[in-house]
Every structure is written in structure tokens, then in C-alpha cells.
Amino acid sequence: MDRLLVLVRHGQSEWNLKNLFTGWRDPGLTEQGVAEAHRAAAQLKAAGLSFDVAFTSALSRAQRTLDIILDDMGLTGLPVIRDQALNERDYGDLTGLNKDDARAKWGEEQVHLWRRSYDIAPPGGESLKDTVARTLPYYVSEILPRVLRGERVLVAAHGNSLRSIVMVLERLGPDGIVKRELATGVPIVYRLAADSTVAERLDLAA
């Protein structure tokens, strides 16, 4: 039984390029982001992987990344489940602001706390802890059971929603997960043991 789970952060978005806090806003992919999605598909094909079902968020940058990957892999008929539980962290009042402008307004230290602490939320937004509380139950109830049944599962989502899943898979604490970076468009391949722990992990680095 394969118990395959692959996580892919969406390709570079227009707001990633502009250094803006994105959250639940819905900018599209840049040309580089599209290229990253094509490259992810090529890496997955080269690794001999295929999938039975895919999950993504309610946001178009993740959905388009997934569409490109499935199209390139010849899997356009694959069942795709979309849910806002996999959406990016909501940055609240920071959403749409340039990160440098936010530092000028609130100070380097405060913005660093909002971005890199585990449980301090920006005004009107979510902390990483809040994102974990939203994403992790969905992973446990909807995604993990399919993997444990032997389905090969692909998840295309966002840096913070995926880190919520990585936190559990890699047994990282609050300090460890805030330091764990996920590059855009780089698949992380997990094979799980029957008890849902990670038997093998492979980053398909660029």
C-alpha cells in the first residue's frame, strides 16, 4: 500500500512578487508561478508518481497551480475537492499592504512577531495557531483517511495552511514550524506508515 501524500505550495502569485500580504485575497499567478507549476508537474512525472484524488483551497492561485499540474500529468479527470479550510492564513488588517510599508507603520519588531510567532495574530487576522486550528481538523477528517486507505493524494494549497499539516507530519513544535519554509511550486512527497506517521519524506527541489 503506497499511502502517498504530496503537498505543493502554489506557484508565485502577483502579490508574492509585489511583496504584499495576501491572505484570503485572490491574485493570480505570475509567469514565474505558472512556470513553477509546470516544473512541479515534470518533477512528479519524473519521480513516477500519480494520484487518485486532489485537494485544494478556495483561492484561484492554488486551484490554477493544481490545474496545471494535473493537465501536464494527464490527470484532468481526477476528482478535485476544494475547501476554504485549506486557504492561506488570513492576515487581517495587513492584507494588501507592502511588507516594508507595514514595518514602517508598526515597526520591524511588531511585524516580525505577527509574521513569525506561532500564536500572535495581526489585527483582525489569524495567527499560525489559528490557521492550524482551521486546517488540521480538515486534514484529519478528510485527507488523512484517504491516504491511510491507500489512495494517492495531492494537496495544492498555501504556505501557512500546508505548514499546519507539515507541523503534524514532521512532529514540529511551535518554534520548529515557524522556521519551516515552503518554497513556491516545490512538491514535498510523504509516504505514511499505517499509524499515520511519516515513513519517508522527499523534497522534489528545483
TrEMBL record:
Please list the reactions this protein catalyses.
(2R)-2-phosphoglycerate = (2R)-3-phosphoglycerate
**Where, by residue number, does the polypeptide cross the bilayer?**
none
Q: Give the top-level enzyme category.
A: isomerase
A Pfam family (short name) is: His_Phos_1
Under the heading InterPro entries, the entry gives: His_Pase_superF_clade-1, His_PPase_superfam, PG/BPGM_mutase_AS, Phosphogly_mut1
Q: Where is this site: Transition state stabilizer?
A: 158
One GO molecular-function entry: phosphoglycerate mutase activity
Listed under GO biological process in this entry are: gluconeogenesis; glycolytic process
Is Nuclease found in the keyword set?
no
Q: Which residues form the active site?
A: 10, 88
Q: What is its EC number?
A: 5.4.2.11
Among CDD domains, the record links this protein to: HP_PGM_like
Keyword annotations of the record: Gluconeogenesis, Glycolysis, Isomerase
Q: In which pathway does it act?
A: Carbohydrate degradation; glycolysis; pyruvate from D-glyceraldehyde 3-phosphate: step 3/5
Q: The organism sits in which domain of life?
A: Bacteria
The residues that the entry says bind substrate are 9-16, 22-23, 61, 88-91, 99, 115-116, 159-160
The answer to whether UniProt assigns keyword Isomerase to this entry is yes
Q: Which family does it belong to?
A: Belongs to the phosphoglycerate mutase family. BPG-dependent PGAM subfamily.
Q: What does this protein do?
A: Catalyzes the interconversion of 2-phosphoglycerate and 3-phosphoglycerate.
Task: State the oligomer form and interacting partners.
Answer: Homodimer.
Query: Which HAMAP family is this protein grouped with?
Result: PGAM_GpmA (MF_01039)
- Please report the name of this protein according to its UniProt entry: 2,3-bisphosphoglycerate-dependent phosphoglycerate mutase
* Organism (species): Tepidamorphus gemmatus
Gene name, Swiss-Prot/TrEMBL: gpmA
